[in-house]
Amino acid sequence: MKIVKTLHHYLFCLFLCLSLPLNLVASQIHNSHHPHSQLTLHSNYTQLKQGDTLLLKATLHLDPEWHSYWKNPGNIGKSLSINWDKKSPIKHSRIYWPAPSIIESNNSYSLGYTQKMTLIIEVQTKKTRDKTLHLNGSFHWLICKESCIPQQSHIKISLPHGPSIKSPSYTDINTLKKAYDYPRHTVQTNETSLTLNTPLPDSTKLRFFPYKKGAAPQTLPWISSNETSTIPLTKITDLKEGGLLKIQAKGTHSYIEINTVEKKKPRPNILKMLGLAFIGGIILNLMPCVLPILSLKALQLLQQQHNTVQTRLKKASFYTLGILSSLLALLITLELLKISGQNVGWGFQLQSSGFVFFLSVLMAAISLNFIGLLPLPSWLFSLQQQASDTQQKHSSNDFINGCLAVVLATPCSAAFMATAIGFALSQSLSISISIFMALGLGLASPFIGIALIPQSVKFLPKPGPWMVTLQKSLALPLAGSVIWLLWILKQQTPSEHWLAFIMALSLLCLGFCLKHRPLRYSLILLGLGLSLIPIYNTVPVKNDNALQFKQLTQEQQNGQAIFLVVTADWCLTCKTNETLVLNTQQTQSLLKQHAVKVITLDWTQHDPSITAYLKSFGHITVPFYVYYPPNKPAIVLGSTISYKKIKKIIKNHGGTHE
After folding, report:
1. What is the pLDDT of residue 34?
2. CA-to-CA distance for 590 and 12, rounded, in angstroms?
3. What is the C-alpha separation between 222 and 232, in angstroms, rounded?
4. Is 352 helix (H, G, I), strand (E, B) or coil?
5. How far apart are CA 647 and CA 341, in angstroms?
6. What average pLDDT does the chain have?
């Protein structure tokens, strides 16, 4: 009897031993052999409900000394990929990857696996009328030793539809999926640190494996307190696509996944932006850039007080039309340059030495005309006479004045205007046009108001001989504009080119003043020819913007508080802010007291990196100011600053080591 029981016992054990491999084979749906590797697939179900999620365990067995690659293979290699047939009823699929090892060989590194690579593939299926689920596709991977072999395997999966039946591999597959589904921490792209709600031991080592293909793993520092640990994200070079953080301490290790998301910006109110553009246009009339044209308009108003309301309104309309036409032309130019791949912003034309020289010639000509040395050309006089005969006298002058107002306004960025323009250039063309037109109406509004309100003329002084003196005195700000433009040329061009521009301008001005026609035209042609030499042989003056950007990154990583200034020599608002705010002893003492480092970016010449930097904050104008508190997101101060504003920002967000 004992012999029979013993025999039954051995037979039962033999049955279990034989049935286990059979059960595993029952869940195996693919097995293919390749040179130095073997691919097997197991599913978590042997029968699947319509539209359910299927989990596959893909195991790549490798011969000794051979390896394959993680989702980021490193500086060499290629990660495994799956191409599903388009006819396969799949909504989406996802690969869960185990943490990689660093594989070093031949002075290079790879991220991947040796001996065996096990992946979990999640497949969300679609509902179909078929009684069987058919999935077709191909796996592609690369294995390497001293040389590399690309390999692939075509797979066909067929599972009956019906009530879900778990396979013998169900528990193993779900356990692996849970292990590979690492805890997630989502951070915004502008965040500078990640806080873990646990203190890390002193012996902890942190290593970040970025998801970006080709990016290298990094060892990271951290700061621990009694209850938390802080990891400075600014130390991570490739964080944009996220990555895997390995935390190793006391012989154990764990992983967390770091994902990044773009900070959602509130959608601006278009009506609000139109209002800001209009107010910015009004304030622009008070900026020093527009002073020469305002001088011309003021002189015209004084000379034409006797005009009817209709005449004044017509003249204001042509002035407004000149402004709107120029702004529209400027916007279209910006859009065309953007389409062609150029990265430009507000005031881009003043980054061209040729355009700056043209403006200096124009301002010099108007100044000479005001003091009586340059009479109007006969062809322009005849046009004005014809206009007078049709009661449209000086309409062309008003239109040209409007155009000049826009040209000279570009070096300035008035309050509210920078926000509106930055928004406009990131929107559709119709919205951009609307905002630019609102800006133009704001710029023209004072003269439209004077034209619409007849009583306003009573407050103007009566015409008289004193106006001749006024006209000559108004030549002074115009001459000042010429000197300022020549100074900009000095910053933009080498000394020999600047001297060529000075000589060309001198010849042109001398030619303008001479009455002897042959000599006059000879000097003008000689001046124009001389100016073409530096224009067509542009040699940009070197700047240190690249070094400043590098310093910005380094100082951020070191926890340094930074006050960043974006300026340009042609920007009068920039120079005003520097004189009245930034360079004062009061502000300098404040920055020194809180150990705030000032970094300056110079946009005098075209620099795509600065344009891209401005656009990253939704701006496209200068001046522009940003405060970087230590290990905190940047604080945008915009284009207007004051001592109180800077002091409040530093007080609220802290300086270095505060």
Report:
1. 94
2. 87
3. 7
4. coil
5. 40
6. 81
Residue 393: helix, strand or coil by DSSP?
A: coil
Which runs of E-coded beta strand occur in 75-217? 81-84, 90-96, 101-105, 108-114, 116-125, 132-144, 148-160, 165-166, 184-188, 193-196, 205-210
The reply to whether omega before 461 is within 30° of 0 (cis) is no
Neighbours of 473 (CB within 10 A): 12
Work out the number of other CB atoms within 10 angstroms of the CB of residue 439.
31
Structure confidence at residue 47 as a pLDDT band (50, 70, 90): very high
The length of the chain is 658
Centre a 10 Å sphere on the Cβ of residue 162 and count the other Cβ atoms it contains. 12
Q: Using CA atoms in the order 479, 493, 512, 318, what is the torsion angle rounded to 10 degrees?
A: -70
* Of 61, 35, 33, 31, the residue nearest 147 (C-alpha): 35
Stretch 396-415: mean pLDDT, rounded?
73
Residue 343 backbone dihedrals phi, psi, to 5 degrees:
-105, 95
Sign of torsion over alpha carbons 650, 652, 656, 658: positive
SS3 59: strand
Residue-level pLDDT at 591: 93
Q: Rounded to an integer, what distance in angstroms lies between the CA atom of residue 14 and that of residue 433?
A: 84
pLDDT value of residue 611: 83
For residue 192, give the amino acid letter: T
How far the first Cα of the chain sits from its last, in Å, is 87
Residue 87: phi and psi, rounded to 5, are -80, -15
User: What is the distance between the alpha carbons of residues 307 and 300, in angstroms, rounded to a whole number?
Assistant: 11
C-alpha to C-alpha distances, 128 to 47, 84, 85, 89, 122, nearest whole angstrom: 15, 17, 16, 7, 19
> Cα(439)–Cα(621) distance, rounded to whole angstroms?
14
CB–CB of 576/584 below 8 Å? no
Q: How would you classify the pairing of strands 635-638 and 624-628?
A: antiparallel
Contacts of 132 (CB under 8 A, 6+ apart): 158, 159, 160, 161
- Confidence bin at 125 (pLDDT 50/70/90): very high
Beta-ladder partners of 636: 626
Q: Which of 434, 417, 324, 333 has its CA nearest to residue 620?
A: 417
The pLDDT value given to residue 178? 94
Residue (of 551, 574, 167) closest to 410 by Cα position: 574
Is pLDDT above 70 for 385?
A: no
Q: Which of the two residues, 6 and 338, has the higher pLDDT score?
A: 338
| Type of residue at 33 | H
Strands (E), 161-266: 165-166, 184-188, 193-196, 205-210, 218-220, 223-224, 229-232, 243-249, 252-261
Please, what's the b/e burial string for 207-241 (b: 16 or more CB within 10 A of its CB; e: otherwise)? bbbbbeeebbbbebebeeeeeebbbbbbbbebbee
Half-sphere exposure (CA, 13 Å, Cβ side) for 180? 22
Alpha-carbon distance 20 to 649, whole Å?
A: 69
Q: Distance (Å, rounded) from C-alpha 23 to C-alpha 170?
A: 11
Tell me which amino acid residue 220 is.
Answer: L
Reported as a single tens digit per residue, the pLDDT across 448-501 is: 887 777 666 566 666 667 667 777 787 887 788 888 888 888 888 888 888 888
Q: Residue 145 has which token pair?
A: 């030793």
User: What CA–CA distance (Å, rounded) separates 208 from 220?
Assistant: 7
- Any idea what the Cα angle at residue 346 is, between residues 342 and 347, rounded to 5°? 100
Asked if pLDDT for residue 379 goes beyond 90, the answer is no
